[in-house]
Design goal:
With 129 residues, the chain is an alpha+beta fold. Strands 1-2-3-5-4 form a five-stranded mixed barrel. Strand 1 and strand 2 form a beta hairpin.
Length: 129
């Protein structure tokens, strides 16, 4: 009887572990988003995480003649990437991200985790020939 209980408990633990891994660590998608970095902050009560928002260029809204902005909210777990973004507010950025099915507190508030920066451009600066 004791062996049967051990096997059942082991199977339940393995299944729950698999579900946890799938929900929080399985990379569901990845891609690139570009836009103007609106803000980038470090916040949190227990886990200090980096959170940011990129405003993507406008597109036609549902009402004729209007433009609607598209916001991309993300988290950053890499200290190196976070330090680069801290100085890029108001600049146009291209960010590579991974999308997870769920957010965990020590990784950030968002299911979108930026893992690298492709480019940072200052729209106000124009290089002269």
């Amino acid at each position: 009887m004791g062996r049967f209980v051990f096997i059942i408990v082991s199977i339940i633990i393995l299944v729950l572990g698999g579900i946890f891994f799938y929900k929080y660590y399985f990379v569901f998608g990845q891609g690139v988003k570009a836009g103007e970095l609106n803000y980038f902050v470090q916040k949190g009560y227990i886990f200090k995480t980096y959170e940011g928002k990129v405003i993507q260029s406008g597109y036609r809204g549902k009402v004729a003649g209007t433009i609607q902005s598209n916001e991309f909210q993300f988290s950053v777990s890499s200290e190196r990437v976070a330090q680069q973004l801290m100085t890029a507010s108001g600049k146009t950025v291209e960010l590579h991200y991974k999308e997870y099915l769920g957010a965990i507190p020590w990784r950030g508030y968002s299911a979108f985790i930026v893992d690298s920066i492709i480019s940072i451009k200052d729209p106000m600066r124009q290089d002269l020939p």
